[in-house]
Write a structure and sequence with these properties.
Elements (H helix, E strand, L loop, with lengths): L1 E3 L2 H7 L5 E4 L3 E5 L4 E5 L8 E4 L4 E7 L7 E8 L1 H41 L7 H18 L3 H7 L1 H12 L1 H19 L1 H6 L7 H7 L5 E5 L6 H14 L8 E5 L2 H13 L6 E4 H13 L7 H4 L1 H16 L2 H13 L18 H16 L4 H7 L4 H23 L5 H20 L4 E4 L7 H11 L8 E6 L14 H4 L1 H4 L4 E4 L2 E2 L4 H11 L11 E2 L8 E5 L3 H12 L4 E7 L9 H7 L3 E7 L8 E6 L15 H7 L8 H11 L2 E9 L6 H8 L4 E3 L3 H5 L2
Parallel strand pairs: 8-12, 8-13, 9-10, 9-11, 11-12, 14-15, 16-20, 16-21, 17-18, 17-19, 19-20
Antiparallel strand pairs: 1-2, 2-3, 3-4, 5-6, 6-7
Helix pairs in contact: 2-3, 4-5, 5-6, 8-9, 11-18, 14-17, 15-17, 17-25, 18-19, 22-26
The structure holds adenosine-5'-triphosphate.
């Protein structure tokens, strides 16, 4: 069926369309230059008829999916046939539309079910939930072949709902989740008042309800991150969103993991799986492989470690080529505990040498990059290159020994579990709905890979990752932690969510003013709000000479009276532990005095604190600035002493009321000097001249 302009008319029409034909549910337009085909699905079904001086015209509106609507006019048509032709076209279109509507009615229940999946979805709609729904919806639409305009006329409400979620899903998801969160906040308001020892504040409540695929709660010291973690586990169970056994809580150290378990038990929540990363990895290996997995005694027992290393070194030093390499190194650089003056074989047992070697072996084993990449990264640093040549064979020998024993150390354990989980995470990961991680700032690339393997894979609903941490308190780089995994959370998980807690309950505003400013001197630390719940006008951080420790202690004991008072002494190393500690503990029974290293103080709190020996070369600790260790630990464009700054921040934020910083009056460290020279609210009994000296 076709209507064409006469030859004469075509001559007048020139470049425009001069013919229209109907061809199996599509319109075919012809002009001198081209033939254009328009399926019924993009035509609005209307033929607009108009009359020129001599001939008739037909105009059509078509709406292609990928372009704006377009008007097509056919000119020069014989007027006496135009109406009849237009009517026939409309009849064909109506017949086609009728068939489409019948088809729609057949699939309408399926489409309603699709809409109800989202409408009836209870809980937080995660980004992956929406993506999975959108993929499914596309499949249904393609399979059913239902056209939007057909659905839009047959069931406008259904059309609006489904296309809204398909085309504007993220905005719809956010609006829906905000409404859900507000409802939950109201419904659980009284429960949030009583779940922890103090009512949760607003930002803590909102944090408890975070439930996307990848969530990070980032907050400063004492802001209640651990409290939120505990409250969230309880909320998930109380609101029947999951069973306790489907929650996995991971911590880095055994102590932290046990504390989590204790706190949950105290709250009456039993059955949540609390574990260290290592214990979890061991369990995963055992269950997935069905075989026994053991930690090698070499990885845990100092004596076994020492014997193995002594034997390995003795055997290798006895080889002239190896001895030559080591001696060549010693001619230029020193190695702790090793002298070029004595035969190396005789020194294989040296404790200092072995400590140095184990440290480098461990660092190398933690690297996620290949041996070639490591080599390339230290190129030009002669000392590091030479050390690498010494240490790499030791690592090789150590890994071979582990293999021979069919056992793991702490590094290989995590790697093996990750490998198994990546292949078979569906079944194993399906047992969990929620993976929670405390102290996320301490995560290493290897542990993060384990988490990703656990939360990844194709499955119905992958577990959500809920991490709490504080990039300001990242102090374990030497153990393989990488703070950029926290500061770069959103690059790793582009659709992740980060929330903050804005109030610290541990320390007053004076300690806060010192600590928060001190840590943010480093521009690479994320800036975040942290107000103290307790405002105070009187300065609470004091710079003192080291010989004043006893007099401050005495005053403190006097002012404490009968009130049980805790005092935390901190030093950079174990060597900073005061010799008189035992004496003081006996002398001042009203004070509960303990000593920890600054690293050991993480997570602790006390009424008062002393930071001891903040001396030049001690705190911040001197870094060698060269060699393999420093090359492997270096971070591009990092502020000098960045890691030590975070460590000092941790120490500063342990006390509730007051913190004394003690330094050698002749050589206070740059941190003590900075507290005086910067605009920090501190008092000082140190010489101004010494503090001001650069
Ligand atoms: N909403 C609150 N009201 C009053 N006190 C609170 C509140 N939330 C937490 N706390 C108290 O604040 C202190 C610090 O809490 P918590 O140990 O959970 O903080 P954190 O952020 O994990 O600290 P850190 O990072 O230093 O380990 C605890 O004594 C806790 O009981």
């Amino acid at each position: 069926m076709k209507l064409t302009a006469s030859n004469l008319a075509q001559w007048f029409v020139q470049g425009d369309h001069y013919s229209i034909a109907l061809d199996d549910n599509q319109l075919v337009f012809e002009s001198k230059q081209m033939t254009q085909t328009v399926p019924f699905s993009i035509w609005d079904g209307q033929c607009r008829v108009s009359r020129g001086l001599v001939w008739g015209r037909l105009t059509f509106i078509v709406s292609p999916a990928d372009r704006p609507a377009q008007k097509i006019t056919v000119y020069g048509l014989p007027w006496n046939h135009v109406h009849e032709f237009a009517e026939t076209l409309s009849e064909h279109y109506q017949a086609w539309l009728g068939k489409q509507q019948n088809k729609f009615m057949l699939v309408e229940p399926e489409l309603i079910a699709l809409r109800d999946e989202l409408r009836d979805f209870s809980g937080f709609l995660r980004v992956e939930d929406l993506k999975a729904w959108q993929v499914k919806a596309q499949e249904v639409f393609e399979r059913c072949g239902v056209l939007p305009q057909v659905m839009a006329t047959a069931n406008p409400a259904l059309y609006q709902s489904l296309y809204g979620w398909l085309q504007n899903g993220e905005a719809q998801r956010n609006a829906r989740n905000t409404a859900w969160r507000d409802e939950e906040l109201a419904r659980w308001s009284t429960w949030f008042d009583g779940v922890e020892s103090s009512p949760l504040n607003d930002s803590q409540r909102q944090a408890v309800l975070m439930d996307d695929n990848h969530n990070l709660l980032l907050a400063g010291a004492g802001s209640g991150k651990t409290s939120v973690l505990m409250a969230r586990a309880q909320y998930l169970v109380a609101s029947q969103q999951t069973e306790p056994s489907r929650i996995l809580m991971l911590a880095f150290g055994k102590k932290a993991s046990e504390e989590m378990a204790e706190r949950l038990a105290k709250a009456g929540l039993n059955g949540v799986e609390t574990s260290t990363f290592h214990a979890f990895a061991l369990k995963a290996i055992k269950e997935i492989s069905g075989q026994d997995a053991n930690i090698a005694p070499m990885a845990t027992d100092e004596e076994t470690k020492h014997s193995w290393m002594t034997l390995w070194l003795a055997e290798n030093f006895a080889q002239p080529a190896v001895e030559k390499r080591w001696l060549k190194h010693l001619a230029q650089w020193s190695i702790p505990g090793l002298s070029a003056e004595r035969p190396l074989v005789e020194q294989a047992h040296e404790a200092k040498l072995q400590r140095w070697l184990w440290r480098l072996v461990d660092l190398l084993a933690q690297q996620s990059q290949s041996a070639t990449a490591i080599k390339a990264s230290i190129k030009g640093d002669e000392k590091a290159e030479s050390e690498l040549a010494l240490v790499q064979p030791v690592l090789k020998g150590y890994l071979a020994a582990l293999k021979a024993q069919k056992a793991y150390d702490f590094n290989s354990l995590i790697k093996e579990a990750t490998k198994l989980l990546s292949k078979k995470s569906e079944a194993f990961g399906a047992r969990y709905d929620h993976i929670m991680v405390d102290e996320y700032q301490d995560i290493s690339p290897a542990r993060l890979a384990l988490l990703e393997a656990l939360c990844g894979g194709k499955r119905n609903r992958a577990p959500s990752l809920f991490a709490v941490g504080d990039d300001w308190q990242a102090i374990y780089r030497f153990a393989g932690s990488d703070v950029s995994l926290t500061t770069g959370f959103m690059s790793r998980f582009p659709s992740g969510v980060i929330r903050y807690l804005d109030t610290t309950y541990r320390f007053n505003s004076q300690i806060g003013a010192v600590a928060n400013t001190f840590i943010q001197v480093d521009p690479q630390q994320l800036s975040k709000p942290l107000d103290s719940a307790r405002e105070q006008k009187k300065k609470a951080v004091h710079l003192m000479p080291s010989d004043a420790v006893e007099s401050v202690l005495e005053k403190l004991a006097k002012s404490a009276g009968d009130k049980p008072t805790s005092l935390l002494l901190m030093g950079r190393n174990n060597a900073n532990k005061p010799e008189s500690l035992g004496e003081w503990q006996n002398q001042y029974p009203n004070l509960s005095i303990s000593y920890v290293t600054a690293h050991g103080s993480k997570g602790l709190e006390a009424d008062y604190s002393f930071i001891l020996d903040v001396d030049d070369g001690t705190f911040p600790a001197k870094s060698s600035g060269e060699g393999l260790e420093s090359a492997l630990l270096s971070v591009a464009d990092e502020l000098e002493h960045a890691e030590e700054r975070r460590l000092f921040y941790v120490a500063l934020t342990r006390a509730r009321h007051e913190c004394w910083v003690f330094s050698d009056p002749e050589k206070p460290s740059i941190f003590a000097k900075e507290l005086w020279q910067g605009s920090y609210p501190v008092t000082s009994k140190l010489s101004k001249k010494v503090l001001q000296a650069v």
